[in-house]
Specification:
This protein is α/β, with parallel strands linked by helices. Helices cover 36% and strands 13% of the residues. The protein is built from 13 helices and 17 strands. The strands form five sheets. The chain has a seven-stranded mixed beta sheet, sandwiched between helices. α12 packs across α13 (462-472). It starts with 25 loop residues before the first helix and ends with a helix. The relative contact order is 0.13.
């Protein structure tokens, strides 16, 4: 006998909790919640769902919102609808992974306020200075700049970056060691192909990077993270490489302690392993001068990976790797005979932008802006939620708000209902970490927090975004 949904209000009750979590609109939240209920077995195959009118009334949603959610889930195969028998959970032997259909711009769910970390406010791109550099670069460009590309990247930009990284990040970056790429992710792909696995990685980090490595056959295992950065004492001889964010651990916010910086270099020397230093927002520290790159300690065992995605714009698709000499040729070979990823004219423009001092001015401008944004966040919390602590150092484009245990998921849901896009700290946790959610759905003790990106909102919208954030936080 099939199950029936006796009371559609149970969707928010203890008998059948449906987690309306996420940062999309209400239809997307409902769809995600229903998928998860089916996937976890809380909604068994054949279970009859309430009529969409009833469910809409129980949840306080528009009828069309629920009707559209049902229709899309039927199209994806999660639900089945038959004339006269209502909508039911589709019969299947085992749950399947949901099919996420690409959304058109007209149908894309957009929050009112965006506090998701990862990109600067596009309105502050230095258009006038960039245009001036583009004009100078094109006027001075040699003829070969308009022919087939060199997989090393344009020599003008490699020379400019060598000087800049040595001066600002303490890197030992000769031009011949630099290979240009389309961003940090592209650099990781190339390194995964050349170095192989397995790698160690910080237990908190970008899931996209872990998935990218896995797609190239490189598995990762987690290293614990505390206030002093990654616990590099957990590295072994089996690890081929370790992926770190030493300047500002992403996302928890602490720099790698000097003792651990030395220890990871010693590990690489002793084992022949490779330290992959993702210089994620390394230029943006507000309480003191940025800490120099680990690569400066041993350029033959550390790769420095960087890009302009935080300082200028992710749309430029320009990044770099400062490589040990032995890896330059293999990485260039893996990249291919011709540069296919970064525009030569944009590389030339960036070279002029750096050489003219415009890049330094832009970074200083962004430091001032981001520091002001972070100060506003801290001040808002002191007024409205003094029980919530901002963790980590004053740096980067985001901050982590430490939440009371067990409140992260409810805070993310509350933020979504406030029209606020923000992510939980658990979204960045390595699935192999000791305090990651278990296979049975239970959670081990871990850290609860929100990762708040303060760089994206427009100046006028930021105060309102902070108000929405404070309303979503758990009470003290």
């Amino acid at each position: 006998m099939t199950n029936s949904w006796v009371n559609s209000a149970e969707i928010l009750g203890s008998d059948l909790p449906l987690e309306l979590s996420g940062t999309g609109n209400r239809r997307a939240l409902l769809m995600d919640a229903l998928r998860e209920a089916v996937r976890s077995g809380r909604l068994a195959p054949g279970t009859r769902l309430p009529p969409y009118r009833s469910l809409a009334a129980d949840l306080g949603l528009a009828r069309n919102t629920v009707a559209d959610a049902y229709a899309e889930l039927v199209a994806e195969g999660w639900l089945a609808a038959r004339q006269g028998s209502g909508t039911r959970v589709a019969e299947r032997a085992v749950p399947v992974t949901p099919v996420h259909r690409p959304r058109t711009p007209e149908r894309a769910a957009r929050p009112v306020h965006d506090l998701v970390q990862g990109q600067p406010d596009p309105s502050v791109f230095p258009r006038t200075a960039w245009l001036a550099s583009a004009r100078r670069a094109l006027a001075a460009a040699p003829d070969d700049a308009f022919g087939p590309g060199d997989p090393h990247g344009r020599p003008e930009l490699r020379r400019a970056l060598a000087g800049y990284l040595a001066r600002v990040r303490g890197a030992r970056a000769a031009p011949e060691r630099i290979v240009l790429c389309s961003g940090a992710a592209h650099g990781l792909r190339l390194l995964a192909e050349v170095v192989g696995g397995p790698w160690a990685a910080e237990e908190y980090g970008l899931p996209f990077h872990r998935a990218l490595l896995a797609s190239h056959g490189v598995g990762t295992r987690p290293l614990g993270v505390d206030a002093d950065g990654a616990r590099v004492d957990g590295l072994t001889r089996r690890d081929r490489a370790v992926l770190l964010t030493p300047a500002h651990q992403f996302p928890t916010g602490g720099p790698l302690h000097p003792v651990r910086r030395s220890a990871v270099v010693d590990w690489a020397r002793a084992t022949g392993g490779l330290v992959v230093e993702d210089d994620y927002d390394g230029e943006f520290r507000y309480d003191r001068q940025p800490v120099g790159a680990v690569q400066g300690l041993d350029p033959e065992h550390v790769v420095l990976v960087g890009s302009v995605s935080k300082s200028l714009s992710p749309t430029l698709r320009i990044g770099w790797m400062v490589l040990p000499q032995r890896l330059v040729a293999p990485v260039v070979a893996a990249k291919g005979e011709r540069e296919q990823f970064s525009s030569a004219t944009e590389q030339l423009t960036l070279a002029d932008f750096v050489e003219s001092g415009a890049y330094d001015r832009q970074v200083r401008r962004m430091r001032q802006r981001h520091r002001r944004r972070r100060d506003q966040l801290v001040a808002a919390l002191e007024r409205r939620a003094p029980h919530i602590r901002v963790t980590g150092i004053a740096a980067g484009l985001h901050a982590v708000l430490e939440l009371p245990p067990g409140t992260e998921r409810s805070a993310v849901r509350a933020a979504a209902w406030q029209g606020l896009a923000v992510e939980g700290l658990a979204d960045y946790l390595h699935p192999g970490a000791e305090h990651a959610p278990r296979a049975d759905g239970a959670e081990c003790p871990g850290r609860d927090g929100l990762v708040v990106g303060y760089a994206t909102p427009a100046e006028a919208a930021y105060p309102e975004a902070l108000e929405a954030l404070c309303r979503a936080l758990p009470p003290g």
